Amino acid sequence: MILQSTWFFLWGLLWAIFFMTDGFDFGIGMLYPFIGKTEQDKCSMIAAMGPLWDGNEVWLITAGGVTFAAFPIVYATLFSSLYTAFMLILFALILRGVSFEFRNKIDNPAWRSIWDKCIFIGSVVPALLFGVAFANIFQGIPLDADHLFQGNFLTLLNPYALLGGIVFVVLFLVHGALWLAARTEGKLHRRAVSAANIIWPVTVLAAVAFLAYSAIATNLYVNYFAYPLLFVIIVLAVAGLLTVKLFILKRAYFKAWFASAIVIVSATFFGVAGLFPNLLPSSINSEYSLSAFNASSSPLTLKIMLVVVLIFVPLVLAYQIWAYTLFKDKITKQDLEHERVY
Amino acid sequence: MDTVFLSRLQFAAATMFHFLFVPLTLGLSILVAYMETRYVRTADETYLRMTRFWGKIFLINFALGVVTGISLEFQFGTNWSRYSAFVGDVFGSLLAIEATAAFFLESTLIGVWIFGWKKLSAKAHATVMWLVAGAGSLSALWILIANGWMQHPVGYTLKNGRAELVDFFAVVFNKFGILEFLHTVPAAYVLSAFVVMGISAYHLLKKQHVEFFIRSFKIAAVFGLASSVWLAIEGDQHAIHVTETQPAKLAAMEAHWETRTQAPIVLFAIPDEKNERNLFQIGKLPGLLSFLGYHDINAQVKGLKDFPRQDRPPVLVTFLSFRVMVALGALFVLLTLLGVLLRNRLLENRLYLMLMVAAIPLPYIAIQAGWVLAEVGRQPWIVYNLMRTSDAASPIAAGQVFASLAAFIVIYGLLGLAGFYLIVKTAVNGPEAEKK
After folding, report:
1. Closest residue of chain A to B411, computed from CA coordinates
2. Cross-chain residue pair B114–A69, CB shorter than 8 Å
3. Residue B420, domain member (yes or no)
4. Which residues in chain B touch residue A71, judged by CB atoms under 8 angstroms apart?
5. pLDDT tens digits along A282-292
6. Domain membership flag for residue B162
7. Residue B411: which domain range?
8. How close is the nearest chain B Cα to the Cα of A301, in Å?
9. Nearest residue of chain A to residue B94 (CA atoms)
10. What is the per-residue pLDDT across A82-136, written as a single tens digit (0 to 9) for each?
11. Distance from C-alpha of B200 to C-alpha of B203, rounded to nearest angstrom
């Protein structure tokens, strides 16, 4: 029980770290066509996430991998049930990744404009669909007694799930705008700040709407009323969101970004805590739900993976924090000149 | 066309496309790291230019390898959910370990390498590339241990309707996976050596950047020779182990129908699977198959007829892919040996240089053939003797898979073209000019 519960927590944590890290890359990618006006703006925006996006994306592979390792039936059922959604995410991520590398290789506006579009699509599609996917998890999907999915792609695009998608999009937009504000200067910097200021109230609205809608569309609050201490997560999310605004006003953009990271982690855990012990609830009958207790791997596998995760995740965090601090300075013209070589 | 067939086609397309890029990543990272270290040690600008030129090709290739890798992990869940649910206890952890213990390091540090020229000391920057190279090979190790388990499952028990782990170290030290690692990674080195030699030969034929490309060629030739000789030695051990663990694959790769002692190898044949015979064959070498499988010309080798039809792999594809791989492997030893011998007279040997330009695609063909042999030869099993491929697919509509397969073909086709164009363009443009 303790082992399975620990893994349930780690499962949530790894997905939360993925949203927190790659989330700002998605945000910058979504802002890209709107605030990247000049060629130099665009290069600066790519450079702002360039050294980090690849390492960030590995959190997805890790989150997916531990879902596979610790809860194989959940992995199998989730990915095959949400087939179209995951395929679209996959293609979007593929396009985004190559665009960063390909875009500046040929000095031709038509060539660049292809990859510029791919950067936007490759960022907005995963942001939206991960939100849709997780809102569907929070809500439960139509799984029958054999864990077979009795629905289709349109079943997944219900109003609550779409609101979840919007929440993710706006959270990542703010997150990306803040990272950009912290790492750029001049006009681009000002546009990033005003983007954060414009999207912030929308995020507050979307978050409140999502919290309220969750009371109607999901059973998440059952856990909250059983263990009122869990409300701390919601308090943290709301406080984080207010702190974001506070730091923007103080022009402390790294701090604002950090607060936004806490918001994203809390938002993920808002759902995860409410789900416990379910990983994939069935909307047909709660007895058909896949939970940490009926869908986990053997105790031996869980123990081995726990050792692996306890050794390597802190190590990964350490060298990723080192990489982040290496690239925390404002991007200069000289940086861009140099990167043009690659 | 059913879900299983379409999913197999999709996985094959995605893996083969992915593996057009992975080998060059594995080998070129080492060559680039070596060149950069030479630069740090000697302060010779040519080595720096070499690092940057080959580094640029490395990075285009790396990007394509990375993005296409995610699709494989995803597909285990989307298309092979029955497989994933059945083996996740053993197989899932290997993929998760690969990501946390190796791929993270590679992906995080590659960003540091690209953007960190001014932020790190020269020595630290070169070290980063060595770590990228090391993490890449470590990634390959975990993935091949995972594949090795599908080829020869060990360390598990059947419980709760699935394969559950009982001996983690048996899985990690599974000889099949280790041998696959010792085969695949040097094969990747050979491929990288041929790419570097081929591009260098192109410029040497045009007599441009002569010093630069002679130096590149020499490094690659030595690397390629060592790796291709190693491959031949290791390949021999590999064959013995396949004989022991996957006798049906051995019989299929030699189109060997009748169980017998002193079993022969035929150089070429056209297997007729329906009538269980070879339609046409040339070059029968008596006893050699017994020797290949057991290092004993008198050993008995089980023929295909002694396996039930439903347990036999497709013979023609297995047979041909083995031949292509081995013939090319032998050629690689010869060509790299010639390269090492001619290393100080390259410019005078234009014919050899032309040959080496033309040879660039060959290791790609050999590596793909090797994987076809490994994976098609494992059929009809997804996990050898444990789970049939036909029982492993997701319970999803064929139409969904058809749509995603079509999308894969279009997107990968376009990306392949764009990537190929960029790599060729970068290669043909040559290195940046020398600083005067």
Report:
1. A91
2. no
3. yes
4. 88
5. 989 888 999 99
6. yes
7. 3-241+309-429
8. 6
9. A69
10. 999 999 999 999 999 999 989 988 889 999 999 999 999 999 999 999 999 999 9
11. 5
